[in-house]
């Protein structure tokens, strides 16, 4: 099913490229846009993960450089039955994280320094389990292709502004076509992001809670991340808004509502769903792995400690 969705997304993006190209430069512009779309589709499939990581200046780390962070990801990947993904760190005070890669064998997870500084081990485990759930559900290919192509479509608006107004081109719509392209292109990234169903976040929340064994860990993390994200600017994300849908919480300021134009579900709705899942698990109504034992996984046990209590900041240097 995800393969079909990805194919439909690529087809839609190619058609959108060609349509905007036609509005800017007529049949010649459409041909050029088609060739660009083909090249972008190939690049996106094989290299979109590297491009997104580079956009956010992510640095790969290993056990020696980030032993606790790396150990948590390694333990959770083992519990989920996934190959060990590459682990990256982003220098940003805003707590956030995302996963990328075309398949589980070529996947990567990235967390900001703000996430490791502000969250406890348990909360970090909940977040990384959510990202591993995206990898397991094979959401990451669609997410990374969307980020790359949506950013490229936005660039067409600039081409329309600088080159679309020439009288020598073959634009059949004249200035009206250029104007439409200039208006459509900046919103194309938003439209494509909305095309990616927000239900995948609920699915990843639930599967992530199953992987780490405690829905309250992720619920607590979501509350902290959402609170801090609105007060902290993520410079790289603001420069690359087409990647916003990849993060666990929208990194762009002022976009926390669960409305038509949001790339993420409302955080409070996600927390309520996780707490309902925790109640089901407490009552024996849901089957999920128990939280890992301390010392064996890098994730310490919290017992029945409620989210929001305990450590205010993570145990990271």
TrEMBL record:
Its EC number is 3.4.24.-. Residues 71-277 form the Peptidase M48 domain. The active site is at residue 131. Signal peptide: none annotated. InterPro entries: HtpX_protease, Pept_M48_protease_HtpX, Peptidase_M48. It is found in: Cell membrane. Binds 1 zinc ion per subunit. GO terms for cellular component: plasma membrane. Residues 280-317 are annotated as: Disordered. This is Protease HtpX homolog. It comes from Oricola thermophila.
């Amino acid at each position: 099913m995800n393969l079909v969705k990805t194919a439909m997304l690529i087809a839609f993006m190619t058609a959108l490229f060609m349509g905007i190209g036609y509005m800017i430069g007529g049949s010649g512009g459409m041909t050029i846009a088609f060739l660009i779309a083909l090249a972008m589709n190939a690049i996106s499939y094989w290299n979109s993960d590297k491009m997104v990581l580079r956009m956010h200046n992510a640095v790969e780390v290993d056990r020696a450089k980030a032993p606790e962070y790396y150990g948590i990801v390694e333990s959770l990947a083992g519990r989920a039955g996934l190959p060990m993904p590459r682990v990256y760190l982003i220098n940003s005070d805003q707590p956030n994280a995302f996963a990328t890669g075309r398949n589980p064998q070529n996947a990567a997870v990235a967390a900001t320094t703000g996430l490791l500084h502000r969250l406890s081990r348990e909360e970090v485990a909940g977040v990384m389990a959510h990202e591993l759930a995206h990898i397991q559900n094979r959401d990451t290919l669609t997410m990374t292709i969307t980020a790359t192509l949506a950013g490229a479509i936005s660039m067409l608006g600039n081409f329309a502004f600088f080159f679309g107004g020439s009288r020598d081109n073959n634009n059949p719509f004249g200035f009206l076509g250029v104007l439409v392209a200039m208006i459509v292109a900046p919103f194309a990234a938003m439209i494509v992001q909305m095309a990616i169903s927000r239900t995948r976040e609920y699915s990843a929340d639930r599967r992530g809670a199953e992987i780490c064994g405690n829905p309250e860990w992720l619920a607590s993390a979501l509350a902290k991340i959402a609170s801090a994200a609105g007060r902290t600017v993520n410079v790289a994300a603001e420069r690359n808004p087409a990647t916003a849908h990849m993060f666990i919480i929208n990194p762009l300021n002022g976009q926390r509502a669960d409305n038509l134009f949001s790339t993420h579900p409302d955080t409070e709705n996600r927390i309520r769903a996780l707490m309902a899942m925790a109640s089901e698990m407490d009552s024996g109504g849901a089957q999920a792995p128990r939280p890992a034992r301390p010392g064996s996984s890098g994730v310490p046990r919290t017992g029945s400690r409620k989210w929001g209590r305990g450590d205010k900041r993570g145990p990271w240097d």
